[in-house]
Amino acid sequence: MLLKDKIALITGGTQGIGKAIAERFIKEGARAIICGRNKKTGEATAKELGGNCEYYQVDVSKRDQVQAWVDDVIKKHKRIDVLVNNAGIANDGQLVKMKDGELVSQMSEEAFDSVIDVNLKGTFNCAQAVSPIMIRQLQGVILNTSSVTANNGSFGLGNYVASKEGINGLTKVWSRELGKHNIRVNVVAPGFTDTNLVDTIPKEALENIIRQIPLKRLAKPEEIANAYAFLASDEASFINGASLRVDGGHVMGT
């Protein structure tokens, strides 16, 4: 019971890796309070995970929604022990695509902004909302979510990679700013994981990705969740400002 009686907020906790994190936290004794934009999916997930799971409909890119969520959790539970910033989206596109010297297509401003707003600004919104609470408690854990693509780069994902590199930077800064209040801030960088997101990757491209992973397979969501459970627990009490890659040793071009 690594997280016994902990109150844990998990953004993007309705499916995929976020759902696996919530499930693992509950098994470790925590109360998982998940949020996501799709109410139907969120309510179904909360029902599936049982009485120690609560769902809130929240768009993390909207500061007022995040603050209302945090305020209600404090009203009900009086504290927040762990924040997992897991919510994230992708909206692929090349910077520019040229053919015969002519511009064919380019990443739209809307596509760029949408990813930055959810992935990077959403992480900022949630961390800023919970930090005063954790400072008053003199304890807390904030876990952010980066990606293997932030380390290796990924063709056509400039907006996504920028958001994840930004999260890496925020983690380093916040670990320095909040450490004196006994708040640990770390980041997990998952590799390619067997979730619905990989269904959008063409078969040939996915096979190429797997060839670049020394373990020769995708991660399982629960394997990613294990890293979050460890870093959220007292077992990781002296780990702060760290980045943990959970990617099977993925190296581009091998």
Main sheet record: 7 strands, parallel
Q: Let me know the number of strands.
A: 9
Distance between the termini: 39 Å
CATH class value: Alpha Beta
Determine the strand fraction and express it as a percent band: 15-25%
| Helix segment tally | 8
Low-confidence stretches: none
Order of helices and strands: EHEHEHEEEHEHHEHHE
Net shape: globular
Mean pLDDT: 94
Write the layout of secondary structure elements.
Layout: E1 7-11, H1 16-27, E2 31-36, H2 39-49, E3 53-57, H3 63-77, E4 82-85, E5 96-99, E6 102-106, H4 109-137, E7 140-145, H5 148-152, H6 158-178, E8 183-190, H7 203-211, H8 221-232, E9 243-246
Parallel strand pairs: 1-2, 1-4, 2-3, 4-7, 7-8, 8-9
Antiparallel strand pairs: 5-6
Task: Describe what you observe in this structure.
By secondary structure, the protein is α/β, with parallel strands linked by helices. The protein has a single domain (7-246), classed as NAD(P)-binding Rossmann-like Domain (Rossmann fold), CATH 3.40.50.720. Helices cover 45% and strands 19% of the residues. The protein has helices spanning 16-27, 39-49, 63-77, 109-137, 148-152, 158-178, 203-211, 221-232, and strands at residues 7-11, 31-36, 53-57, 82-85, 96-99, 102-106, 140-145, 183-190, 243-246. A seven-stranded parallel beta sheet has the order 3-2-1-4-7-8-9, sandwiched between helices.
